[in-house]
Each structure stands twice: as C-alpha cells, then as structure tokens.
Amino acid sequence: MPAVIASRIARFHTSDLIKARLTFLEAKEQVLNRAVNTPPRPAWYCSGCPHNTSTKVPEGSLALAGIGCHVMATAIYPEHNRLTTHMGGEGAPWIGQSAFSQLPHVFQNLGDGTYFHSGYLAIRAAVAAKANMTYKILYNDAVAMTGGQPVDGTLTVFQIANQMAAEGVKRIALVTEDLSRYTDRSGLPSIITINDRKDMDAVQRELREVKGVSVLIYDQVCAAEKRRRRKKKEFPDPPQRMFINDAVCEGCGDCGTQSNCTSIMPLETEFGRKRVIDQSTCNKDYSCVKGFCPSFVTVTGGTPRKAKVARATDDSFAALPEPVHASCEHPYNILINGIGGTGVITIGALLGMAGHLEGKGVSVLDMTGMSQKNGSVTSHVRIAPTPEAIRAQRIATGEADLVLGCDMLTAGAQDAIGKMRPGRTHAVINTHEQPTGHFAQQRDWQYPVDDVEALIAESVGGNVDYLDATRLATALMGDSIAANLFMLGYAYQKGLLPLSEAAILRAIELNGVAVASNQKAFLWGRRAAVDLKAVERAAVPARPVLVTMPETLAAVVRRRVDFLTSYQDAGYARQYERLVDEVRQAEAKLGQGDRLARAVGEQPLLVHPRPVERRVDAPQERLVPLED
C-alpha cells in the first residue's frame, strides 16, 4: 500500500526524503512477511474460568454467542460455537432462522450482566415465538469481560429462575459448582432441577429435546473474581491443590482437553514432554482431573513451598551509577508488549504518570479489548517536552525508540515488528516461554524461540537485549508478576527511558499497589542491567557442575528398561527393548550406524502400556495383563 500511494504522489511531487521513506517501507514489508509466521497469542479463558465448561455443548449441538467473555468460545470451540449478535439480541437471529433450518434446536449463551441489561427481553421474544432453543444463562457474579465490575443492580440465581418461570419457560435446570448453595430450595420455582456441574453434558442432552424455550442457569463464580476475593479473604479458599507426578504422566494432554486450562504447562523431561500445573496461576477449578489420569496427586492442607528470595538490600551489590537518560527533544516512543493480565497496561500507566510528574507531554494508548484475557496486549507510550509536540498517540511504522517486550511472541508479532527500525530501535525482550492458550488443545505445540529471536534481532539491527525476566523476578521476588517492573528497571539502567528514577518510583508509590515489592523489582532490574551474572547468582545460587559422558545405546536401553519395569512390569519393558533392537538390526544391515535406533531408544513413551482384562477371582479382584 505505501508503494502504491507513493507512486501516485510521484506524478506530482517527489523528494529524497520520500524516496528514502519508501525504500524503508518496502524493506519493512519483506520482514513483515516473515513476522506472519509468528504464532498469534489470542485471547483465552482464564485459568479455571467457568466458561471452559459452560460453553461446551453435546456432540451434534450448536451454541450461539453474544456479548461477554463467552463470545471467545467461537474461537476456542469453533466447531460448536458460532455467530454472535448485539447486546440484548441473544437468540433473536434464531427466531428468524429456525423456520428455514434443518437444525431442530440451538443453545444460546447469555451472560448474567447482559441478562440484567436487556437479555431477558430476547428470552421473552423467543418464548412468544415458540422457538426451540435453550438459553444458557451464565451466572458468574461479575462483569468479567471488562475487569470484574459488579453487575449493575441486584441479581441472584433465585431472581433469574423465578423471572424465567413467570415468563412462561416450562423447563429450567440449575447447574452449579456448589450444591450446598441450594440446600434451601424454598425460594426457587417448583419446576427447577438442581444439578452438579459434572452432569452438565447429560442436562444439556435432556434440554435439547424439550420443545419450545428451556433455560439452563450455570452458576459458577468468575475465576479471576474468585482470585481477587480470596486475596481479600472474602471468598472460601479450598485447601486442596492439584499436582502432576511427571514420572507417571504420559504427556497425552487429556487434562488440557478436559479443562482448557492455561495453568497446565509443558514440562520437558528426558522421557519427553510431560505436564506441570503452575501453582502461581491455578485458581483451583479442579476440572483438569475430569479425565482418567493416574498422574494427578491431590494435596490437602498444604501450601506450595516458596523458594527463599534474595534480599534487595544485599551488601554484595554496590551503589548503582545513574544512567544517561534518553533524550525526548523529539517525541520518544516506547512500545510495550505483553500478555493480558500480567500488568502490561500498568507499566504504560506508570510511565505516563512519571512523565506527568516531570512536566513532560505524555500520551498512552492501550490496545487491549478482549486480549486482557491471556491475549496480546500493547501499550503505545510517547514522551515529549510538551504535550503540543505529540501529534498522534499511535507509534508509526519504524518509529519505536524502545520495544519493551514483556512477552517474546507479542514482541515478534507483525504489528510490533512494524514499529522497529535498525539504527533507531532498541529492544529489551523477556525470553520466558509462556505457551499460548492453544497448548491446552494442541499437546505438541512448540514455542518458536529461535525464529522469533532472529526476527526481532534483524528488525532492530541486532540492538536487542534478551533476558529471562520471569525466571529471575520469580526467584528474587517470589512472584512472576514482578517480571514487568524488573524489565522496566533494566531498560531504565540501560539509559533507554527519558525519565528519572525519582519520578518512576513516585509513580509506583501513587499507583498504591504492592509499592515496596514493585520498587524492589525495579531495583533488581537495574542491577541486572549492570551485572546480569551477579543477579543470576543471587536468584539461583550456584550448584556443583555435573559432568556426564555420552551414553552408549546399550546404556540408554538398559536404564530405560529398568525404569519401565519399575513403572509397570518386565513385559512392558520387553516391548520397548524389542522395538529398539528391531530398529537397530535394520539400521545395521544398511550400515547406517545407530542414530535412528538411538532416537527410538530415547523415546520410550512411543510404547504404550499393554491392555489388561479384568478378571474377578473371589474374594479379591485383580488385573491380569493380556498376552503380548
């Protein structure tokens, strides 16, 4: 497009400046074409989100979307969730479509906030039209999509149920995460049934056979809201925590399929990829255990052991030199990239406040939307001597002076790459490999570290600093949320901010949230910019270096045979041993060495446990392996 516009303008006027700009844009297009290959980081349900369960429908059914977090189901579960409409129009399209469709029934998702606003009017219209559909009213006790605000007015499950009965709905089912909330049914209509959420599929199968309009009220508090209330001691905090025994885990990914939970992370081991639960983000939904998996371990009454964090007043660190601040004689442009919900917008707000405190002109443009839910979030921060010097809020192509990449995937996306220019842009990139939400559904999803790092380095002409800020900040501060302030401190000490330390620290103070912790994270980031090795030693104390010699194929097989025998039995281990031996012999006949056999030998999980038959020998029951 720039080349087309330039060619048209050239008919009337051109200049060396226009030609130089056009040359840059054409070169940038070539780089952007490669940025398309960077995996996107789409918005995704939070860990333990009710919608992970409530927006699923039985095989053969279809659900329609509306306004609210549940609209993300059209991207997360696209095979069963389609279309969307305006607030208050939920279900109205089906009233018109149903007469012309061979589909006898649909589910319509409807959030509790939208219900209170105007959604109940759509239900009234569907009842009057005698449409065959089930409204799933998703009661999560908060306006979750825009940050957890309370629903305007008073709204309870009891009120919804009674209003629906009064509107003429003949079948109402209540599905809940906690049956004890409804031990007293006196305030509910007589036609309602109360079910545990584990029966969600069966309840939906029944409702889709009901003629006319039926209603399913799904009662589960928003996971993010639970987390906020638990911090304030305003919501029960279950004593159970789930862990995965990686020695038993086979990496099948069923826990992710069942729960769609972003707290289930990859764990790379010598036996292949396993799973681990990120205890710092787990919201204790427990839906990950719905699958038939023996690797889950429930711990009751315990709390995760926190590593001893280093002290920011450690005397081993000398006083830090004051950096030469970046100039903002012309607008200085900072592009902040990261993951929604991790404080990216807060960093932009802090810089904006710091600039204001110094009397500078500042603009902060946040690109969020639904992306605040685990998706890509970007903040455009522009700082100038006066407000009049800033003529646009958005950073133009190739005009970023600093890219603060709190997430490497987001920093390597097309929009961010477009803002970089060799010779002008300096990038500070967090190399922590945080999977996208797709990992819950794609067990073999891989983080393209090398490709994205190379793309960013090329885009800034090699003017980039890579560091695992998440790992260091977590080790030093005890919480990964400190990573972004850590990176801000790093960029400050490198002289990449046109602001003073006093203004930034005062902005953190005015923000009023975890002031001491955030200021300490900023200090650790400054120290890392001066002596990264020393900070790494403080975060992760040195351990003895173990030197291991390369193993022979026979040694690899012997060790895994012992492991598989202990894991199941000798018969299971023999299957693995025979497979490796067959590959080794075939490879030897071709005179190709043992590279393929070694590759097979180092992947014992290619062999699955033998099937078993259940044989009952009174008075005890035992499992007997079938013959090989």
Description:
This protein is of the alpha/beta class and 628 residues long. 36% of the residues lie in helices and 17% in strands. It has 22 helices and 19 strands. The chain has a seven-stranded parallel sheet with strand order 2-1-3-4-7-5-6, with helices on both faces. Helix 15 crosses helix 16 (483-493). The protein is globular and about 75 Å long.
Number of distinct helices: 22
Number of E-type strands: 19
Quote the average pLDDT.
Answer: 88
Query: What is the CA-CA span between the terminal residues?
Result: 65 Å
What's the arrangement of strands in the largest beta sheet? 2-1-3-4-7-5-6
Structural class: alpha/beta
Strand content: 15-25%
Low-confidence stretches: 606-628
Keywords for this structure?
single chain, 628 residues, alpha/beta, seven-stranded parallel sheet, six-stranded mixed sheet, 22 helices, disordered C terminus
Helix and strand arrangement:
Layout: H1 2-9, H2 16-35, H3 51-54, E1 63-64, H4 73-76, E2 81-82, H5 92-97, E3 106-111, H6 112-129, E4 133-139, H7 157-166, E5 171-176, E6 192-196, H8 200-207, E7 213-219, H9 223-231, E8 240-244, H10 254-259, E9 264-269, E10 272-277, E11 296-300, E12 332-339, H11 344-357, E13 361-367, E14 376-384, E15 402-405, H12 408-411, H13 414-418, E16 426-430, H14 449-459, E17 464-467, H15 469-477, H16 483-493, H17 501-511, H18 515-530, H19 532-539, H20 553-567, H21 570-589, H22 595-601, E18 612-617, E19 620-625
Parallel strand pairs: 1-2, 1-3, 3-4, 4-7, 5-6, 5-7, 12-15, 15-16, 16-17
Antiparallel strand pairs: 8-11, 9-10, 12-14, 13-14, 18-19
Helix pairs in contact: 2-14, 11-17, 15-16, 15-18, 15-19, 16-18, 17-18, 18-19, 20-21, 21-22
